[in-house]
Design goal:
Strand content: 5-15%
Oligomer: single chain
Helix content: 55-70%
Radius of gyration: 25 Å
Strand order of the largest sheet: 2-1-3
Length: 177
Amino acid sequence: MSPQVAAPTDDRAKARRELTVTVLLCAVGALVELLAAGRPWARLHGAVATTSYPGSHVAQAVRPLALVALAGAAALLATRRWGRIAVGLVIVAAGVGTAVAAVVAQAPHGSVDLPAWRVVTIVAAVPVVLAGAVAAARGYRWSVMSARYDAPGARQRVQDPDVALWDALDRGDDPTG
C-alpha cells in the first residue's frame, strides 16, 4: 500500500480556511476591544452627579491599538507572503500593547474601579495575539489575491510569440537580428 498524498487543492482549501479563521479571529478580537474601550472602566460618585470614565479615557492606548489590529485583519487579505509576516508581527504587537494598556490602566483619583470591561479587553487581546502569531508563522503559505485587483498598468500581458514576431515586423524591427 502506498501512502495517500493530499491533493494540491486540499492544501489550498486548508490554507484559505486558515487565512479566513485568522482574519476573523483578529477582527472579532479587535472589535471587542473597541467595544470595551467605550464602556465604563471607572466611576466617580460626586455629591451632585456620577461620572463614568470609559476605557478610552482610562487607558488611552486601547482604542488606537484595537484599530491597528482591525486594519491588520484587512491587511492580511491584501498583502502577499512576506508582507503578511510583517502584518502578523504588527498585529501581535497591537494585541500585546492593548493587554498591557488594560492591565496598567489607572482609574482617576477618587473613582471606583470597574474591572469587568478591563478584563474583557484583556481576554479580547488573546485572539488578536494568536491571529498575529499565526499570520507571522504561516502567512507566507497562504494564497494571495488575484491579479485582477492590481492596478491596470501593473499587469503585463502575456503575448503569443507569433503575434509578437508580426508586431515587431509591423514596427519595422528586424526580429532575426
